[in-house]
Design a protein that fits this description.
globular, two-stranded antiparallel sheet, alpha+beta, Nuclear Transport Factor 2, Chain: A
Length: 143
C-alpha cells in the first residue's frame, strides 16, 4: 500500500475512458490534487447546484483593468477559492505575470500538500483576449 494513498483516488480530469477496459481512467495522490486545483479554477461558482460555493469567480476578471490593484485582488480571490475548495493543500502562493503581448495573464500557483509537506505548483494561463490576428480583420469586413 503506497504511503500517499490518503490523498485519494478519483476520476481523471478531464474525464477519459480506457479503451481496453471501457472504464474511466483515475488519478491519485499528487496528480489528483493538481487536477483538483485546476478543476476549482475552471468551475464557475454556482455552476454546481449541489455545491454552489465550489469553484472560483475567475471569469469575472476577464474584462478587468490589469493594474496592480486588480491583479492583487485576483490573486487573493484565487488563493481563497483554492484553500476553501481543496482541503489537502496549504500554504498557497499566487504570482500573476501579465504577458500582454499574448493577451493573457500567467498565474503561477505554488502550494504545499499538507500531509506530506511536499511542494508542488501549477501554471495556469488566463486569457483576457481570445482573438487571433485573423479574427480582428474578419470583424471589420462589413464596415
Amino acid at each position: 500500500m503506497p504511503e500517499e494513498s490518503f490523498l485519494g483516488r478519483g476520476m481523471k480530469f478531464p474525464p477519459q475512458i480506457n479503451k481496453a477496459t471501457g472504464r474511466f481512467i483515475t488519478s491519485e495522490d499528487a496528480v489528483s490534487v493538481k487536477e483538483s486545483v485546476y478543476l476549482i479554477l475552471m468551475t464557475q461558482k454556482t455552476e454546481r447546484w449541489l455545491r454552489p460555493e465550489f469553484g472560483s469567480n475567475l471569469s469575472s476578471y476577464t474584462f478587468m483593468d490589469t493594474n496592480e490593484t486588480m491583479l492583487n485582488l485576483m490573486g487573493t480571490q484565487i488563493t481563497r477559492d483554492i484553500i476553501n475548495g481543496e482541503p489537502r493543500i496549504s500554504d498557497v502562493q499566487i504570482d500573476i505575470d501579465p504577458d500582454m503581448k499574448k493577451g493573457c495573464l500567467i498565474v503561477h500557483i505554488d502550494y504545499t500538500i499538507a500531509q506530506t509537506n511536499t511542494r508542488d505548483n501549477l501554471v495556469f494561463p488566463f486569457y483576457l483576449n481570445v482573438t487571433t490576428e485573423g479574427d480582428e480583420d474578419e470583424g471589420n469586413q462589413g464596415l
